[in-house]
Amino acid sequence: MVHLDFFSSRMPDIETLQAAQDIKGLIRLLDHRNFDIQRRSADALGSLGAIATMPLLAVLNDRRLAIRLGAIEALGTIRDPRSYKPLIYMLDRDRNPEVRWVAAIALGNLGSPDAIDPLVRALKDPDRYVRYGAAQALQILSWVPKDDMDLAYYCIALQDWKRVAEVGAAATGPLIDILRDHNATTRGEIVDALGEIGDASSQRACELVLKDASSTVRWKAILAAKKCGVPVTHLPWGLSKRPRTGQNPWVAAILNFLFLGLGYNYLGYWWGFLVFMSYMSILVLSQLELGPFSPYLIVYPVTALFAVQTFFMAKRKGDW
């Protein structure tokens, strides 16, 4: 007889593990499928103090993201000085932005001035969440920017765009640097700020942003271009270099020439496949009646007309 506990979905008893100081058991729960269990396990580990520091440091390189995140959170609560260098390493080197983000917050919680330089570097991270975490940690450490450039990076990290514009020309370099951010909303805000500042040195950046993958960012670049000193005649040229996100007109035309209906289907019209099935049915019946090759003498001139029509349909429809 199979014991019923085998099928039990009973939640882990974190309080018992905490009372027994079962650090390994709690670390295993950091990767539990239930997020609440993960969070409570990290809190329990943090409450154990310095005795949990070394076991937690040992799992910072674990391939499981949840383990790394939970361990760093617990270390930030424990505030053991032995955590500084490993956390700085995670902030500088870990490829996952969520890990870098929580490492920044943990370093702020540790409260040591030694964490300031790594956190200032993190203000230039390509991920906005990491930058925001670093700025929050620097607030906790009562950091004061040493110059306008540091202030600009700090305000960008906090998404305080009004204050960024108030910094003036000194913010142009940091804004251009953070234009590499993967988030289109952030890039759009940066372009707005560059236009607000109107520094001539941002002209090249505004021209490059005309090629941005996001249509919203490109439009913001056009609006900011005049303030940044970009000649009006450069705008169509720069915009023409943008990545094409719509369906390729040539692909649509060729598909409709060879397999009438698939070109429409490629463009997103659901009825295109019905046209294709009807076309293939007619073609097969014609081959049975006229032979295997004769129908193509009639079909291809007709589908060529549809191919031309599809080409111009795609040009009007897509961003190509």
Gross morphology is flat
Helical content class: 55-70%
Mean pLDDT, rounded to whole units?
Answer: 87
| Spatial gap, N to C terminus | 67 Å
- CATH superfamily (homologous) name of the largest domain: Leucine-rich Repeat Variant
Q: CATH top level of the largest domain?
A: Mainly Alpha
Question: What structural class do helix, strand and pairing data support?
Answer: mainly alpha
Characterise this structure.
It is a single chain. By secondary structure, the protein is mainly α. The chain folds into three domains: 11-120 and 130-136, Leucine-rich Repeat Variant, CATH 1.25.10; 152-239, Leucine-rich Repeat Variant (Alpha Horseshoe), CATH 1.25.10.10; 249-317, no CATH class. The protein is 66% helix and 0% strand. It has 20 helices and no strands. The protein has helices spanning 14-19, 23-29, 35-47, 53-58, 65-78, 84-93, 97-110, 116-122, 128-140, 148-157, 161-167, 172-178, 184-197, 203-209, 215-225, 234-239, 249-258, 262-266, 272-290, 294-317. α3 (35-47) runs parallel beside α5, α12 (172-178) runs antiparallel to α13 and α13 (184-197) runs parallel beside α15. It is flat and about 85 Å long. The termini are far apart. The relative contact order is 0.05. The model is unreliable at 1-8 (pLDDT under 50).
